[in-house]
Amino acid sequence: MTTESFSPVPGPADPRRWRALGVLGLIQFMLILDVTVVNVALPQIKIDLDMSESSLAWVVEAYVLAAGGLLLLGGRLADLIGRRVTFLAGVALFGVASATCGFAQSGLMMDVSRFVQGMGEALAAPASLGIIAVLFHDPKERIKALGIFGGLAGLGGTSGTVISGFITHVDWRWIFFINVPVAIAALLLVPRLVDESRSPKAHRPDFLGAVLGTSGLLAVVYGLLRAADHDWTETGVVAAIAGGLVLVALMVLVEARSSDPLIPLSFFQNRTRVTTNIVTLFFSTAFFSYFFLLTLVEQQILGWSSIKCGLSYLPFGICIGAGIGIGTGLMPRVGVKALLATGFALDAVGMSLATLIGSGDSYVGHILPGMVLLALGSGLSFPAIGNASLHQVTAEDSSLASGVQQAIQQIGGALGLATLASIAVKHAASNPLPNHLPDLAGGSVIAYWVGAVSLAIGGLLVVAFMEYVDPVPKMPGAEIAPEPEPA
């Protein structure tokens, strides 16, 4: 994310700003949509591309690892070379990769294309926020614009599974093809609606740190997913995980010695922010794994159609939206710490109830109770996490703090999904059902219990280590003051 003050000097309000916001918001909707839109299509992708359950996880993993691992680098590039050109490069990359995803003829082609899609998000998403901060000089207008932008992003995340259900019923490839005309429209419109801007304080970004970190995470995830089909002590599994950890350690060393690191190590000296990022890892672990495994169970074990599967997630979107609204209203009254602890407690109970899928196939009795509680708890947690991640952060560093939080969400989801999917698939393969299908429901139960415990631990960490946090809702970038370009 962008970390510097914005330019140019405030003048008359740009008459194109709201039209530009519409285009930027549509692209953000598309970017977030593609995190979840593949879930319902996974079983059909598995059949058409002849993929195993463990390799299928890469369709999700490749995207979130690239997006999360390169997000901060993308923000720095936007500051350095220009926000508009970085945004356009990201959208172009995303559009081309969407087309190759749609035309994919093998699992490898799909995974590589999804990784490039994630790279596109890592460039376009932070540049979008920087453009909005430049377009909207008035603080009240900026808050409204960022609220609309964030709302569209949230809508993309919650509606992805429902949209995917209907599109997959026709042909799963169109969940990718529909991105192409949207990307083309943005490439044509944004140059007419947005002027170029960059930060006068931007420095050369730490490419080596970003490459080491992302490569290390890819290696760790590869090792975890390989463990689904091999023993945990198998040479390939151990070498991949150990090599990945070495690369991550090298990244930390490089960052510590860099004159301009992507994330200054001093950023992690604040106890509340560190706690928030740690519990976000636990939250993302459960969140990503829940969607991935439940989708496979509903379609492969329960025999549901893609439309029925997609519609089954509709209460989740409704309840998470309600939870966000309730949480935002309650936060100034009960405080960030209490709200976040309550959200994690509800999530832990919801994840525990999700294990009922192993004892029956009733939607109302075995799926809906856990889904509703998990969604409400998640909705309550989001506003609190947003404030806690910005605790004692200066206005100029608010975008950095937000970028770290978003990167942690993506990376945590990738690592958690790799771990829990591996556990679930390994159990399923070794415990076949009478019809010789793997017991994915039983494997999911084990993974959900692990997720429930991790969420409970996250809630305890919040209670034990989080300091008092200002409960007035905050929005990254809303208070950044423009700075003039140097003569």
UniProtKB/TrEMBL annotation:
<feature type="transmembrane region" description="Helical">
    <location>
        <begin position="445"/>
        <end position="466"/>
    </location>
</feature>
<feature type="transmembrane region" description="Helical">
    <location>
        <begin position="363"/>
        <end position="386"/>
    </location>
</feature>
<feature type="transmembrane region" description="Helical">
    <location>
        <begin position="148"/>
        <end position="168"/>
    </location>
</feature>
<feature type="transmembrane region" description="Helical">
    <location>
        <begin position="274"/>
        <end position="293"/>
    </location>
</feature>
<feature type="transmembrane region" description="Helical">
    <location>
        <begin position="206"/>
        <end position="225"/>
    </location>
</feature>
<keyword id="KW-0812">Transmembrane</keyword>
<feature type="transmembrane region" description="Helical">
    <location>
        <begin position="313"/>
        <end position="331"/>
    </location>
</feature>
<dbReference type="InterPro" id="IPR005829">
    <property type="entry name" value="Sugar_transporter_CS"/>
</dbReference>
<feature type="transmembrane region" description="Helical">
    <location>
        <begin position="338"/>
        <end position="357"/>
    </location>
</feature>
<dbReference type="Pfam" id="PF07690">
    <property type="entry name" value="MFS_1"/>
</dbReference>
<keyword id="KW-1003">Cell membrane</keyword>
<feature type="transmembrane region" description="Helical">
    <location>
        <begin position="21"/>
        <end position="42"/>
    </location>
</feature>
<dbReference type="InterPro" id="IPR020846">
    <property type="entry name" value="MFS_dom"/>
</dbReference>
<protein>
    <submittedName>
        <fullName>MFS transporter</fullName>
    </submittedName>
</protein>
<feature type="transmembrane region" description="Helical">
    <location>
        <begin position="237"/>
        <end position="254"/>
    </location>
</feature>
<feature type="transmembrane region" description="Helical">
    <location>
        <begin position="174"/>
        <end position="194"/>
    </location>
</feature>
<feature type="transmembrane region" description="Helical">
    <location>
        <begin position="407"/>
        <end position="425"/>
    </location>
</feature>
<dbReference type="InterPro" id="IPR011701">
    <property type="entry name" value="MFS"/>
</dbReference>
<feature type="transmembrane region" description="Helical">
    <location>
        <begin position="54"/>
        <end position="73"/>
    </location>
</feature>
<feature type="domain" description="Major facilitator superfamily (MFS) profile">
    <location>
        <begin position="20"/>
        <end position="470"/>
    </location>
</feature>
<keyword id="KW-0472">Membrane</keyword>
<feature type="transmembrane region" description="Helical">
    <location>
        <begin position="85"/>
        <end position="109"/>
    </location>
</feature>
<dbReference type="InterPro" id="IPR036259">
    <property type="entry name" value="MFS_trans_sf"/>
</dbReference>
<feature type="transmembrane region" description="Helical">
    <location>
        <begin position="115"/>
        <end position="136"/>
    </location>
</feature>
<keyword id="KW-1133">Transmembrane helix</keyword>
<keyword id="KW-0813">Transport</keyword>
